[in-house]
Design brief:
With 913 residues, the chain is of the alpha+beta class. The protein has 29 helices and 23 strands. It is elongated, with a radius of gyration of 37 Å.
């Protein structure tokens, strides 16, 4: 009875895992998706609505209030969000950024004036107050650092004129000084964007002034009220852009609804419906480019919407699909170990009752009747286990979701039917009449060959089909790890007895019989240890595979982030904004700079006119790059090919990813033919050089890569290049100074983008998706270890009678208690070593076996798939833990075995009885 109860407990655990597993994975996915949205929106708003407005045109007798109008329309736009996103898609801030004006203070400054509804409140002001509407006077507020740098005081008047706004001549008055804290402020305080305000990141000039170029006025930022923006707009008769920034805040349970394929389609549909709904709510008139809409007393254009959330969601979907592969393997391994534990428990029940069942068979009972009776006897325990598992799954379910009770029922039925099926196999006529007949080796060979064929077929089918478009549980994906475990066990059972017999023969020459007897029995009983070996191999392989994937993802994300930056920092779009690029090159901490440019070309062969293929022509100054980054493969390749020494011909000398030295390629640009002369093949490793990452990562992957020195590309104008990047090198870069020059870009922005390697790598590592994969594997591995311990102890109890007889015989010959324990341990030592070798090998080769079905590059990005990162310490710890697990099982079995006396295993009495 206790074993039947134990079987019910195993059923309960497996039902809970099968029913709650998908829901728990969905919760992990929801948490990862919510964190991904939060990470993206830390530095820029998730959705930006914008409209261009003209100077006010108030009706006679009416006085407009732009600030109230902005707040009213912010509410209208927020309420236009779809019902399922309402409450999550909220208004974050409203911004009006004016063109720069000149201020006659401190010898002249260039003022960037901004209205921000998320500006600091009253508590942040150390002097004065926030700007308000005051007639034709433009009230200003600056940060402490700006006040100290320009020696300003509250109440000081500042003349505003000229700059990028013509005909402006207004009076500004400083009414407040605020404390800018948090990221981007340069104060060093604050730990997050919510606490420290994203405003300083998007508008760094508000937090700290920036010295101008040689002879130029310093750049300064100041806050204004909406009325101040109107005053300057009316004078300049200029068009201003109003931005309503929205933020998507999703709770974990809400985000979890959009993780699956069906939820993904719902999210895409909702995000597609929102911009038209917001546009209609803002203005229900079709203007076709005119300003037929109004914002208070201002004529306005239709609402335009930019967002990166849809692209972020698509990227997350691809990564989550691969994460599902990894986590499905963890769940399948756990269920495989659990089912093996159920098999061993059922076998032990059958073994304990086999004598009584045979007696009943001799008295006329049928095998089917005995099996049916065993099914009825174990049904209450199975029902209790199913109920307990479903209750546990219900407690852990995510709000709004339902556990997979159908999967739990299938697992419960399978485990429940094991006992009657094994009982029938043990007491059927053939088993009773031919119990001691030797089994043919042919049957074993056929079974092993079938297992190997099924494992190979499963792997090939998974590689060919992949996981693209997979929705819901995937039976093939769940079966492959168990099939691979069975195939590994089949190979190990055939192979490991050979070296064990060889060691046993060598030990026969020495003194003592413990080693000889233990190893001889270990080699002889190897086929009978299949279940124990399967449990250990699958458990260890799953743990090693999870550790390998987690380590590869973490290191791969760091390497991909470094590739996308290219150096310690980089400015993408340097040719579009040369002024900012020049100021970045002179920023504090910048030691060396290198410019990289990329041009899209579609050349043809100069010999036969055949197409070469769309290619990326990348130009970089090889000499400067080698001085800045001595380990650069691109710089070394250019120098070795002699391209850094310049050439006098009209041909552009290139290293090509495909082609031979001397090949001539031509393409046409602006009606002029350009000639490319291939001087050699592109060395291995150049395509993955981090220095080329910023420009190569900005476009889709192309057929070929052509590398040239910048000296050979002088004939091209800056506008000819599709992308350019300024690489910044310096061990002690002042990231705050760099960020003050280049704010983080909002969706739809056309300016350059500053990337800092330390920031990118920190964001890459702090990824809940990788944490979800790690957590799922850790939890499944921990539970699998417990089930493996149970299965191992039960399997040892199953084989305890034969082992007990051997020990009893040796004890009658004088074998001591410690020697008997050593005999048990040595007898299991080959099994443990075989399990360690097989489990570690299977876990390490599993990513290669899966091939396209597990594309880790989806997680990491970068030019190629990430290098496998094997944590040797983690693998050694797992192997040592397996040894401890087996030792613990032996200890438990030995303790139980001490209760049996010699009479329980030896036939005592007279021989003539």
């Amino acid at each position: 009875m206790p074993l039947v109860v134990g079987l019910g407990m195993v059923i309960g655990v497996l039902v809970a895992v099968a029913a709650a597993g998908p829901g728990l994975f969905e919760r992990l996915g929801g948490d990862a998706l919510a964190d991904r949205f939060d990470q993206v929106q830390r530095a820029a708003p998730g959705v930006v609505h914008s409209a261009r407005i003209d100077p006010e045109q108030p009706r006679p007798g009416e006085e407009g209030d732009l600030e109230a109008d902005l707040a009213r329309y912010a509410t209208v736009i927020e309420n236009a969000s779809p019902g399922r996103l309402r409450g999550g898609l909220v208004h974050d801030s409203t911004r009006i950024e004016l063109p720069t004006v000149e201020g006659d203070v401190a010898g002249g400054v260039s003022l960037s004036l901004v209205y921000a509804s998320d500006a600091p409140g009253r508590s942040a002001y150390v002097a004065g107050r926030a700007p308000r509407a005051r007639g034709q006077v433009v009230e200003l507020a600056v940060s402490e650092r700006t006040r100290d740098a320009l020696r300003l005081r509250v109440g000081q008047r500042i003349g505003l004129q000229g700059g990028a706004m013509e005909n402006v001549r207004a009076v500004g008055r400083l009414v407040g000084v605020f404390r800018a804290t948090g990221p981007g402020s340069g104060s060093g305080s604050g730990s997050g964007f919510k606490e420290g305000m994203r405003l300083w990141v998007e508008q760094p000039l508000l937090a700290r002034p920036v010295p101008g170029a040689a002879g130029a006025a310093p750049d300064v930022g100041a806050l204004i009220a909406p009325r101040g923006a109107e005053v300057l707009q009316n004078q300049a008769n200029a068009e201003l852009t109003v931005e309503w920034n929205m933020r998507l805040d999703m709770a974990e349970e809400v985000a979890g609804r959009f993780v699956g394929e069906r939820g993904a389609r719902d999210f895409q549909r909702l995000m597609a419906r929102y911009p038209p709904a917001a546009e209609e709510a803002f203005c229900d008139m079709e203007s076709y480019g005119g300003k037929w809409c109004v914002l208070g007393s201002h004529p306005a254009t239709e609402l335009e919407t930019d967002t990166e959330l849809v692209d972020v969601f698509e990227e997350f979907r691809r990564q989550w699909r691969q994460a599902g592969v990894v986590m499905s393997f963890a769940l399948a391994s756990l269920l495989g170990v659990g089912l093996t534990a159920a098999v061993v428990t059922s076998l032990l029940v059958v073994r304990r009752r086999l004598d009584g069942d045979r007696l009943l068979r001799a008295r006329g009972a049928s095998a089917a009747g005995l099996a049916l009776g065993r099914a009825v006897e174990s049904a209450p325990a199975a029902l209790l286990g199913f109920g307990a598992g479903c209750a546990a799954a219900a407690l852990t379910r995510a709000p709004g979701s339902s556990p997979a009770y159908g999967d739990g029922l299938a697992v419960a039925l399978l485990c429940w039917l094991l006992l009657p099926a094994l009982t029938w196999c043990a007491v059927r006529d053939r088993a009773v009449l031919r119990e001691r007949a030797p089994r043919g080796a042919g049957r074993r060979v056929v079974v092993e060959a079938l297992v190997l064929l099924l494992a190979a077929g499963g792997v090939l089918a998974l590689r060919a089909r992949g996981t693209e478009g997979a929705a819901g549980p995937d039976p093939l994906l769940a079966a492959v790890p168990v099939l691979l475990g069975l195939a590994t066990v089949a190979v190990l059972v055939r192979c490991y007895p050979w070296p064990v017999r060889a060691v046993a023969r060598r030990s026969a020459r020495g003194r003592g019989t413990v080693v000889l007897v233990a190893l001889s029995r270990a080699a002889k009983e190897a086929p009978a240890r299949g279940l124990a070996l399967l449990v250990l191999v699958v458990t260890l392989a799953g743990a090693v595979f999870g550790g390998l994937v987690s380590g590869t993802l973490v290191e791969g994300r760091r390497a991909a982030a470094a590739w996308q930056v290219g150096a310690d920092a980089s400015f993408l779009g340097a040719d579009r904004d040369p002024g900012t690029a020049d100021r970045l090159a002179r920023a504090r901490g910048v030691r060396k700079t290198v410019t990289v440019r990329q041009l899209r070309v579609d050349p043809v062969s100069g010999k036969d006119g055949g197409r070469y293929g769309i290619s990326s022509l990348v130009g970089v100054d090889g000499a400067k790059l080698r001085a800045a980054a001595g380990d650069s493969a691109a710089a070394r390749a250019l120098d070795d090919a002699g391209l850094t020494r310049g050439g006098g011909g009209r041909d552009i000398r290139v290293l090509a990813s495909e082609g031979h030295a001397g090949d001539l390629l031509t393409f046409t640009l602006h009606g002029k033919e350009q000639r490319l002369r291939v001087v050699g093949p592109l060395p291995e490793g150049v395509a993955g050089d981090a220095a080329l990452g910023p420009v190569r990562g900005a476009t889709e992957s192309r057929q070929h890569l052509l590398l040239a020195d910048s000296r050979d590309l002088r004939a091209f104008a800056a506008a000819d290049f599709e992308e350019s990047a300024l690489l910044l090198y310096g061990a002690r870069l002042d990231t705050e100074a760099l960020r003050s020059l280049v704010p983080r870009a909002a969706p739809g922005a056309t300016g350059g983008e500053l990337r800092i390697r330390a920031e990118e790598q920190a964001e890459a590592v702090d990824d809940r998706l990788i944490a979800a994969v790690t957590l799922a594997h850790t939890a499944c591995t921990a539970l699998a270890v417990l089930l493996a311990l149970l299965a191992l102890v039960l399997e040892l109890l199953l084989s305890a009678p034969a082992r007990g007889r051997t020990t009893a015989y040796l004890r009658t010959l004088g074998l001591g208690g410690r020697a008997a324990a050593a005999l048990h341990l040595l007898q299991l030592l080959p099994l443990v070593l075989a399990a360690v070798v097989g489990g570690v090998a299977l876990g390490l080769v599993l990513p290669a076996l899966l091939g396209p079905a597990l594309d880790l590059r989806e997680f990491t990005g970068g030019p190629t798939a990430p290098d496998r990162h094997v944590d040797a310490l983690f693998t050694a710890a797992l192997s040592a833990g397996l040894c401890v697990l087996v030792a613990a099982a032996v200890g438990v079995e030995s303790r139980l075995g001490r209760r049996r006396g010699l009479g329980a295993v030896l036939r005592l009495g007279r021989a003539d009885d």
